[in-house]
Amino acid sequence: MPKSKRNKTVTLSKTQKKGRERKEAIVNEVKEAAEKYSSVYVFSFENMRNQKFKEFRDQLKSTSRFFLGSNKVMQVALGHSAADEIRPGLYKVSKLLRGNTGILFTNLPKEEVERLFNEFEEYDFARTGGTATEKVELKEGPLEQFTHEMEPFLRKQGMPVRLNKGVVELVSDFVVCEEGKPLSPEASRILRLLGMKMATFQLHLMCRWSPDDFELYIQGPDDSDVENS
Q: What is the top-level taxon of the source organism (predicted)?
């Protein structure tokens, strides 16, 4: 009698082990970096663009090491309190790892790090759900920036268009997006076609740690206890 498929044993141990090993590896790498580099920064980010961040990271790879991922894993590595921190004062860094944040370990002078972060700014097309930075409205009439082949696609995006002697024409005024409101999938596609970039990828320094100093750059309502502890 053939074996029943219902009795087939499925093990998840390999997947679980791999995930645990990866977390342990990150913890060890963070601890090693904390011993190797002279200062530590926490930074926050807006509108992350992976390729642009990779280019920025590669620019500093000879002097620095970035960690971007699970905040909880990095907190474990640095220590949650003065009792389990790996170096004096690093638990203050750990407390700031929440939301869209990362860590920079570096041997660069403070002034150089501040300059690099202050100058870093990349503009890109906004994605679905992003916030419109301005109102965009197209007026009734010909849309000569679009070829006639694009008319069906524009219609699918909700635009009231038609072909008039081979020219794409808007039959009535059309609001693509409103300032301060989330972008729909259709709006983000239209803005890309219009060449309008509304997303700014920025990195903001939150704090700096060195063996002799701890400094907050951005202090929120919940961070006063970090600076004073």
A: Eukaryota
Q: What is the CA radius of gyration of the chain?
A: 25
Per-residue pLDDT of 72-83, as tens digits, reads 999 999 998 888
> What torsion do the CA atoms of 202, 205, 206, 211 make, to the nearest 10 degrees?
160
CA distance 191 to 127: 10
- Residue 165 buriedness (CB in 10 A; 0-12 / 13-18 / 19+): exposed
- Cα angle 145, 149, 154 (rounded to 5 degrees) comes to 70
- Mean pLDDT, the chain, integer: 88
> What residue ranges define each of the domains in the chain, with the CATH number in brackets?
20-122+200-228 (3.30.70.1730), 136-196 (3.90.105.20)
Q: Which residues pair with 208 in a beta bridge?
A: 41, 215
Residue 38: alpha-carbon gap to chain centroid: 26
Please give the model's pTM, rounded to 2 decimal places. Answer: 0.75
Sign, Cα dihedral of 209, 95, 100, 103: positive
- Residue 2 pLDDT exceeds 60: no
CB 106 within 8 A of CB 41: yes
Give the distance from CA 132 to its chain's centroid. 18
